[in-house]
Amino acid sequence: MTDLVPIGEFSLMTQLSVKTLRHYHDVGLLEPTSVDASSGYRFYDTDLVPTAQLIRRLRGLDMPVTDVRSVLAAPNDLERDALIGNHLARMEGALQQTRAAVSDLRVMLGPSAGAIEVEYRAVPETATIAITGQVAVGDVLPWWQEAARELRALARQTGVQVTGFLGGLYDPALYTDEVGQVTVFLPVAEPLDAGRVKALVLPASDLAVTVHRGSYAGIDRTYGALGAYVASRHEGRPGPIRENYLLTPDDTTDDSELRTEISWPVNASAEQAN
């Protein structure tokens, strides 16, 4: 025999508001056991209390309603735990990004780091294997991570000789229009095509180069300093920004040890002038 309680009492048992319970009914997440045909009043079996409490905890962890529904519908504990684990992993990643952003903000509000060091380079034509795509600015980091892993894996599998650091080319439209072309490349002795990986020869280029030290969360400050440096000397020219990844998260777990070269395209005369 089931024990039915009205929505108000069920709300008290589960610490879910009446408004929330009605919403969960409307979206099919937690349906009442019965609804009075004349009054529309909802009644719940007390056996639903554990389910409601699980929903409350998952929503408290910002799990989307669609994912909560998948957890409740999981055919076994293994699949249920995998769904919850995936969400927790996403939360941990977001937490790391938040911590990095907070740390960078503290640095920004602290004493000025002073003038940056800039080196001018005439970079020769470079043979690479590369992955190119149109990427939204908010998706750059995960897209970059996947492309970098794919390039490095291909180099290991084929035994091709790597001749330089992993790098990236970033179309200015990525920042001006929030969507732009991004290329992740790996210099190699003998380029090859494999799936979305393509042989790509980077043209020779004149660049103003500085090194960003630390987390990617603060890389915009180094961009700003280098861009202002080049602009003050009227040396800039159109073209993608180039990055070289001297130390990446694959090389160290300490964000303070990350090292990224940022290269701004400049006129060929800039190197002689400096």
From TrEMBL:
PROSITE patterns to which the protein is assigned, alphabetical: HTH_MERR_2 (PS50937)
Region annotation Disordered: where it falls in the sequence: 240-274
Keyword Ribonucleoprotein: no
Superkingdom: Bacteria
InterPro entries: AraC_E-bd (IPR010499), DNA-bd_dom_put_sf (IPR009061), GyrI-like (IPR029442), MerR-type_HTH_dom (IPR000551), MerR_fam (IPR047057), Reg_factor_effector_dom_sf (IPR011256)
Record domain HTH merR-type: where: 1-74
Keyword hit for DNA-binding: yes
Pfam family, one: MerR_1
Keyword tags: DNA-binding
Protein name: MerR family transcriptional regulator
